[in-house]
Amino acid sequence: MSKTNASLASRARPQTADAEDAQGESLDRWHIAILAELQKDARLSNAELASRIGLSAAPTWRRVRWLEEQGFITGYRAEIDRRKIGLGVLAFVRLDADRNTGASTKPLEDAIRGLPEVISCHYISGAGTFELQVLATDLDAFSRFTIDTLLNLPNVKDVHTSFSLGEVKAGGGVPLSHLQPG
Asked: Rounded to two decimals, what is the model's pTM?
């Protein structure tokens, strides 16, 4: 078989060779393809995932397990439409800490982690200490949450809020185009 024909034949069928299943410390093209497909649909069966990326089932399964073990895949969950379950308000809350030292913000961080209404929290640059995304059923519920909870967290100096008026994009996967197979 000529080199060209062998190359075409190998692309036409799923890969199974041990060399194709080798896993080093970096991501290869199969890992990247798996991440891309699972971001689109995490409910894919292993057989469907293998078919989509052009690799056989066993090495695909081993690669998914490796991605999980190495912490590239941190979990699987259902995306829920917040409006359908009565959470009509999405607020972006800049929370200013009274003192910005590691020791003084640790109790605040721990308290924020325990609030189910806070769906994300980030340290931010510029004005403020944290940027939170907060869900509430309505403006009254958000107001109560702010007064009763946020303003009573340890070391909170001030709270500034902006509300989402409409979602343009949400729940998108992380970009993978910058990854170069290793």
From this structure: 0.77
